[in-house]
Amino acid sequence: MNQNLHKLGISDAVIRFGDAVLKELKPRFEEIDAIAEQNQYKVIAAMQKNRVNATHFASSSGYGYDDAGRDTLEKVYADIFGTEDALVRPQITCGTHALAVALFGSVRPGDEILSPVGKPYDTLEEVIGIRSSRGSLAEWGVGYRQVDLLPDGSFDFAGIAAAINEKTKLVTIQRSKGYQTRPTLSPQQIGTLIAFIKERKSDVICMVDNCYGEFTRLTEPSEHGADLVVGSLIKNPGGGLCSTGGYLCGRADLIANCAYRLTSPGLGKEVGASLGVLTSYYQGLFLAPCVTANAEKGAIFAAKAFEALGFPVSPSADAPRYDIIQAIDFGKPQGLITFCRGIQAAAPVDSYVTPEPWDMPGYDSKVIMAAGAFVQGSSIELSADGPLKPPYTAFFQGGLTFPHAKLGILSAVQRLSDAGLITLPCDATAR
Predict the structure, then answer these.
(1) Structural element, H or E, at residue 114
(2) Please, are residues 183 and 153 in contact by the beta-carbon 8 Å criterion?
(3) What structural domains and CATH numbers belong to the chain?
(4) Helix, strand, or coil here: 327?
């Protein structure tokens, strides 16, 4: 059985190490499978309610008027996320773009945005204007306030209450950790935060950056008070089949404003050709709960393996999990670089490529990225990346199948072992 792993460059020692780790994870994997099963039923129920049929897979071009497949898909998303309306379009280029559409569609000059969970994801800094950038919200006279989490990762409720004022128009809540060490937030925690904010200013728009978190739990933040939830289709909800696109789900008036921002005032949701992508959008959504479960299992396997090797990981292998991201602190650049190169070597696409740190657009330091994916940058596919700055953390995510996620981790362990950067528990050599 190990013959195929040997062909992929994995030694018997690493295989034995992986098998020992895997034996301890059966109860966690059963829990994940149970959540995936319920989310699968939720997706099917939404598709059946909206009478999805073969005609909805047809392509539209030009203006995209009367695109029944596109419009029905948005109804399906709205039902899954428990919202009034949705915007699900290939014209949304990525998660950052989806968030920018939500922000620009929701605020006006003189308004303020509040982040009550610390610094937002790196690429959003330029959208808001935290880092100067052409066309940012700051250039349009939109202010920004930030309240950091407390040292233990909990909300600073006193600081949040003090930061809310008459100008506060929108609160942005990032569910996942991004390139940070803070915990990922559960839908229930987000709901508690939203309730606190709404008690102090009922008309504030609460927007959740839901990237990486979809289908990891039984409910979504939109079912806990969020006015808008926003994400990318090349992450969890695309199921690995979507080639591009993003989604926004929320209150009907907010979605209308976002649609006017995405297209044009007066046009909104009425235009936007589907261009032949709808089959993959529907089928990807259908697969998404189980694909997300595979990615989660891969993240937990990584956490357990690198805990055993003595590295700080977040979250721990035994902790509740609210997204697909696994952070591993290597403490030095060579560990991060070698790990990413091991992940790349396990890819079905571009396995022969050697990742190098480079200046990626939107980031304030060099980033190394392993991404041997069918869809460029798809984070639901097996990938790993991290900024070249202390504590040299690798952010590992994805895996359309668990065997591939397992292979990626074993490949990374093999590379680290070969480089003398780790010692396997069964080895005699000290790290």
Answers:
(1) strand 112-115
(2) yes
(3) 3-39+289-418 (3.90.1150.60), 57-285 (3.40.640.10)
(4) strand
